[in-house]
Amino acid sequence: MNAHSVKKLVFSSSCTVYGVPQFLPLTENHPLGQCTSPYGATKYFAETLLKDLHEADTSWNIVSLRYFNPVGAHPSARIGEDSSGPPSNLMPHICQVAAGLSPYVNVYGNDYDTPDGTGIVFLVTINRLIQVTCFVSDRSYFLSNMPTGSKLCLCIRDYVHIVDLSKAHVSALRMLNNNCGLKAYNIGTGKGYSVLEIIRAMEKASGKRIPYRICARRRGDTDAIYADPSLAFHELRWKAVHDLDKMCEDQWRWQRLNPHGYDGDFEAGDH
């Protein structure tokens, strides 16, 4: 890039650079580097390299977009996530269960220490989740049969529609043209949802019952993480506008119209 005098860069970073949150919602001045996964460590390492690059040569203009959890698909259903194997991301996995391609959704952990006073419901009341099937220890229960007031403590995540995410990139490109220097922005909605809330929203979008089972929590998963996106709003003039229902509707449309992904039928230049 230096050889061709290209000194403008938008870097796709991640909220995983923050590690375990010291406070919520996360702002861009939250301490970095206490990453809980190799993926987060690579993003933090890349941001550190870019910071060093800018300090060595201030003619560089760099914007790092710290994605929260990108989901959804293009509303046309022409562009979506095409996994080469079993999906590793939550939303495509839930869609495959709704489509009958997988038997159930794995919910990793129900023992998260979710804090009070954050403005979102961290404890999901079981008797509100009637019609969802829960598999625990190879036994199947209807949640309506669970004791009234029983609760699951589930991890909370901030999900952002990929169309909103794409528009954030356009806003970042405009920022680069203003000789912005080195910048970083949270790209999220500022709202957190549990896995069960995602399942319920996908049931609404698809009209399908989506079974799930509770598994052991995964190493490196934090209890709750969601953005304060106000800096992106004030400086990039960007704001996420698609809600959870829209994310699920577009993801389900992609799944329904492309049950096997692109399946080799997508041609270059086809749009």
UniProtKB/TrEMBL annotation:
Record keyword NAD present: yes
Query: What cofactors are annotated for this protein?
Result: NAD(+)
Query: Pathway involvement?
Result: Carbohydrate metabolism; galactose metabolism
> Looking at its record, which EC class is this enzyme?
isomerase
Q: Which GO terms describe its molecular function?
A: UDP-glucose 4-epimerase activity
The chemistry this enzyme catalyses reads:
UDP-alpha-D-glucose = UDP-alpha-D-galactose
Q: Which GO terms describe its cellular component?
A: cytosol
InterPro entries membership: Epimerase_deHydtase, NAD(P)-bd_dom_sf
For whether the record's keyword set contains Coiled coil, the answer is no
Q: Name one GO biological process term.
A: galactose catabolic process via UDP-galactose, Leloir pathway
Report the Pfam families cross-referenced here. Answer: Epimerase (PF01370)
Location of the NAD-dependent epimerase/dehydratase domain: 2-92
Q: Which UniProt keywords apply?
A: Carbohydrate metabolism, Galactose metabolism, Isomerase, NAD
Q: Give EC number(s), comma-separated.
A: 5.1.3.2
Protein name stated in the entry: UDP-glucose 4-epimerase
